[in-house]
Amino acid sequence: MTPLAAAGPVIPDFGRGSSCVRGNGTFCWDWVDSHWSDTLRPALVQHVVLTLVAIAVGFAIAFALALLAHRRGWITTPVVLVTGLLYTIPSLALFQLLVPFTGLSRTTAEIALVSYTLLILFRNTLAGLAGVPEDVRDAARGMGLTRRQLLWRVELPLAMPAIVAGLRIATVTVISLATVAVFVVNEGLGAPIYAGLQQTFKTELIAAGALCVVLALAADGLLVLAQRVLTPWTRVARSR
Amino acid sequence: MNTDNTAQTEGPNAYPRAATLELRHVRKVYPGASGPAIDDLSLTVPAGEICVLVGPSGCGKTTAMRLVNRMIELTDGEILLDGASVTARKPAELRREIGYVIQQIGLFPHQTIADNVATVPRLLGWGKQRVAGRVRELLELVQLPPELAERYPAQLSGGQRQRVGVARALAADPPLLLMDEPFGAIDPIARHRLQDELLQLQARVRKTIVFVTHDIDEAIKLGDRIAILREGGVLAQYAPPDELLASPADEFVASFVGRDRALKRLALSRVGELSLLPADGGPHGDTIAPDTSLRDALSLLISDGDRPLAVSDGNGGVAGLVSLELIRGALRGGSAR
Prior knowledge:
The complex is a heterodimer of chains A (about 240) and B (about 325). Chain A is mainly alpha-helical and about 240 residues long. Chain A has one domain (about 45-230): MetI-like (MetI-like fold). Chain A contains 10 helices and no strands. Chain A has helices spanning about 10-15, 20, 30-70, 75-90, 90-100, 105-130, 135-140, 145-175, 190-195, 205-230. The model of chain A has no long low-confidence stretch (mean pLDDT about 85). In chain B, the strands form 3 sheets. Chain B has a 6-stranded mixed sheet with strand order 6-7-8-3-9-10, sandwiched between helices. Chain B has a 4-stranded antiparallel sheet with strand order 2-1-4-5, covered by helices on one side. In chain B, α6 crosses α7 (about 160-170). In chain B, about 35% of the residues lie in helices and about 20% in strands. Chain B has helices spanning about 5-10, 60-70, 90-95, 115, 120-125, 130-140, 160-170, 190-205, 215-220, 240-245, 250-255, 260-265, 295-305, 325-330; strands spanning about 20-30, 40-45, 50-55, 75-80, 85, 100, 175-180, 210-215, 225-230, 235-240, 285-290, 310, 320. With about 325 residues, chain B is of the alpha/beta class. Residues about 1-15 of chain B have low confidence and may be disordered. The interface of A and B includes residues 138, 141, 145, 146 and 240 of A.
């Protein structure tokens, strides 16, 4: 009997790896290091793009609907019903529902991601606009601001904290949800996570998952920073 | 001659612009309401005078004021500003020419005091320099320290906010000022001070002011003329304070001005305005200053027996004496003033 001992490595990749990789360690920094530029960085960039597009499109739609509902109150209920329904559809199911129409494409992923941002962005924008004190509105009109000036110079700036709060929740949600987009399009941090799930070597899964968390925290931090810059009046000491 | 806005060049001591306001048979019926909120209201406010609209809640006084700058549209009748109908104007443009102060002030929380005050000048497209100069001028006019300019409304006290509200309303030098219970939410001491300040301010700016309040004492103190409205927006009486107190038109006005209307009327006059009794060297009580009100003088007289009071002439001497009879005579006369 010829011994089974192979002449070369059974899984060629592992042969070139470090001892950590060869020993199937739980987490190997050197794997992250050697696969940063060919696997992790592109996935991260794709993930950021997926998220940005979803938030931008979602915000544009939700913002327009909120302005409309702010003027014509009856629009609120149907919008909340429809966006609420979209929000409750499980993401995997929504992807599958869309595939017959838009195929296994980035569009499918984006449509699904956008649909999850609408409810929160719409509700927060509308609540921010509705939260403008009546006396402020009255004084603004009484001084001769037109409806449009009232909206852009008074109501929207005052609604900013609520709008940014909505953006924060929507952004973190989309960053997390976008990993599931791997089922329709092989992009984003979902790809290395999915790959990691298929193998016993877990570094790829852990690294991609950690990047996802870091990305969410960074995006949230940036939005908090943006709000501080945009709404200086919210931080002044309430003297009386 | 006053078509140009001269606020920048002439400074706070030169406010040439004040408009005559005329309401003609004004009627307002809210859709679905059983009766009118304002019914056949006619009154004229001469340029540069304070007209106080006063009455019980639900009398339509705020509605009447808001009809003027078209925050509420009238149902019938006419409102003329210097002879021109307000309904002929675009509401937003009209409002930029009418100062507007409300009880809750409604300062923009997201803007600094300077930006708040600059609201209407910016809407009118004034240049940066002119706006900045005007803001400084106005803060001084309402006696606010210039360092408040960069603060936000939340950092100011109620009284300071109210002053900013007045400064903001005066920013573009409007010929007419509407004030809806501007001091209603302020504690009594600060309220009296703000009332005094408003009168001092008015002595400088001489605007036409429509002032809404439910407080008859405030109305008497501030008004050149007082319009008392009764429920349903009907004008009960429109007269200067003294006339209102001396001869109320009916039972409603009499009860609204109060049973102490004689005392209120005495509070309007100073002892220096009376033709005093000659100081004959006889016995007299306390010596009082000529700007003591007749009401205070009466209080001193009735607490101090029968002796008349001496009125000083301001140079250590006695200008004359004031007695109970003299004060009673002042009330009997056509005018206590």
